[in-house]
């Protein structure tokens, strides 16, 4: 778990774990939760998502499952814009929906890549 996702976050993973272990960490990543919009929390997320997709594809999964990203709604627009440049392979949920009762009340309102 990383507190911040500034650019370039996966280089920090490489420095900490080395290349092989970083690939495993990226392949095992299940969820990203961004608390608020500040560059030190979200700017490097597209790089992490691309690196994750490539790690899964290199491991023999040509169509990896999207990674769930939970964060403030403006983050969705940021990721959608990046997704037009390169496939980030994510689905998005507004963090307000993770509040008590929010997920149950709004089940199925996850936004995909589109």
Structural description of this entry:
The protein is mainly alpha-helical. The chain is 46% helix and 11% strand. It is built from five helices and three strands, in the order αβααβαβα. It has a three-stranded parallel β-sheet with strand order 1-2-3. Helix 1 packs across helix 3 (45-58). The longest helix has 20 residues, at 9-28.
In short:
The chain is built from 5 helices and 3 strands; from the N terminus they run αβααβαβα.
Task: Give the strand order of the largest sheet, numbering strands 1, 2, ... along the chain.
Answer: 1-2-3
Largest sheet: 3 strands, parallel
The SSE order reads HEHHEHEH
Secondary structure category: mainly alpha
Percent in helix = 40-55%
Mean pLDDT metric: 83
Low-pLDDT segments, ≥5 res: none
Radius of gyration: 14 Å
Beta-strand content bin: 5-15%
CA(first)-CA(last) distance:
27 Å
Tally the beta strands.
3
Total helical elements: 5
General shape: globular
Summarize the topology.
Elements: H1 9-28, E1 31-33, H2 39-42, H3 45-58, E2 67-71, H4 73-83, E3 90-94, H5 102-105
Parallel strand pairs: 1-2, 2-3
Helix pairs in contact: 1-3
